[in-house]
Structures are given as structure tokens and as C-alpha cells.
Amino acid sequence: MFRIFHRRSLVVLLVISLFASFAIVAYATHSWGGYHWARTSNPFTLKIANNTNNGWPTYFNTSISDWDKSTVINFAPYVSTSSKRCAMVAGTVQVCNSTYGNNGWLGLASINIVDGTHITQGSAKMNDTYFNTSTYNNPNEKLHVMCQEVGHTFGLDHQSTDGSSQNTCMDYFSNTGANAGSTLSTHPNQHDYDELSIIYQHLDSTTTLAAPTTQAAGKSEVTDDPNSWGMLVSQSPNGRSSTYERYNSDGSKTITHVFWTEEVGARGNSDHRFDN
Ligand SMILES: [Zn+2]
Ligand SMILES: [Zn+2]
User: Fold this and answer.
1) Residue 259 maps to which CATH number?
2) Which of 123, 129, 158, 260 has minimal Cβ neighbours within 10 Å of its Cβ?
């Protein structure tokens, strides 16, 4: 009798856990390739450098306090002054703004990967060549792009690229023109926090995070020069979002997410580096 009961409850348990794992798989929809920082405990602390000026520190601070609401990541922000190149620093994320030129992109996020999925360093850049113009120079658009580029450096992908608002900064709603005053899509939403909890649920045996005192220069051959990004590996149908991959000489790879301007997106589905 006990044995029968036991077996039946085992079956029930199996069915429940099967459904539970389906639920998790179905929900894990916007991890960026499974990429994550290796760490041996949760929550973990990520060093993130504020290299910004020209009004950007406000958006940096808001975005970091937004992402800090995640139950798995804490931040150790520090002020730094990088060159325009925004060179990566091992174990950290570097956030920069500059007039990177009329190259078509508003924002750029790069992460270096080893062992297939582990992030070793990241950078997020905002292009003032466009943000200084009337179309993009508004607080909501700036906060949206800052929040998204920083979000990519933890391994998050977009929730949507079709221009609709999911009310997360990880979408491609434009806070410009008639929507310049809209605060939609300027912060993460609950789905982003849930996704981070899934991505960082497991623990690793090693860490790729910088210790609080280290400042080692990280190796990456990727810069804001589009020719350094490597191969185009994916692009959204509306042409506003592209991903590139480059293999570095040390065996790591660098993946770059490009947030193109509205004008560039309107050109369609070409590799926008070679549009002109
Ligand atoms: Zn891992
Ligand atoms: Zn993006």
C-alpha cells in the first residue's frame, strides 16, 4: 500500500516538475545567448565605471539604481575618465559617451566571452553626435538607450525590436517626435528582473568579476570603429538592431549589440556599416 502510494506521488511530482521546467523554458525568452558573468555566489557585485559627462551621469545613476533592484546583481559604481575609445577593463563594465561621429548608431554594447558563455568584461557607449541633435536630445530617449546598453552587459537581449513599447528599456520604442515626452520604456520591467534571476540561478566554480581593487586592462580588439566588430550575425526585421561577433587573438570573442538611429533603420535590412 505504501509502495503504491509512494509511486503515485512520485509520478505526480515528476509531472509537476516537468510542467515547472516547461514554464521556466517558456519564460526564459530574452537572455542574450545565455551569456552571463561567472560567479561563485549570489547576489554578486559588478564593478561598473561611470566615464560619462555632458549630462549623462544623471541617466547612468538612474539606470544603475533601476538595475540594482534585481535580486541577483548588486553594483559597485565608480567614477572614471576613459578616453573616447572606452577600452574594456577586465571584470568590469565601462560606460561612456562621446561624439563618436555620424556612423548611424545611437548606442553600442559589447561583451567579451570566454568558455562559450562567460562574460569577462563589457562596455556601453552612447553617441552624442546624435544625442546632441534635437531629434534625440531628450531625457526619455537618453534614459531608454542608457538603460538598454547597460542591460546588455549583464546578458539581457531585447524583449521586442518592432518599435512597440513593452514598457521596458529592452525594447525599441522611440521616445522621440510625438513620443518625446513619453516615459514609456525608460526603465526595466518585471520580466527583465525575472529573466536575470533565471540567467543567474546557477552558480559557477570560477568568477570573471573583478575583485574590488583590481584595475587590469582587458584585452579586446573591438572599438567604436565598425570595421572592428567582426561578422554581422543577426538583425531585426526593421533594421534598427544588429549583432556582430568578432574572434580575438587570445581566443575570446566579443559580441556587439548596435542600436541604430531611426534614419538608418529606415534604410531596411542591409549591413548598415556599408550603407554609404
Ligand atoms: Zn555559469
Ligand atoms: Zn540593444
Assistant:
1) 3.40.390.10
2) 129
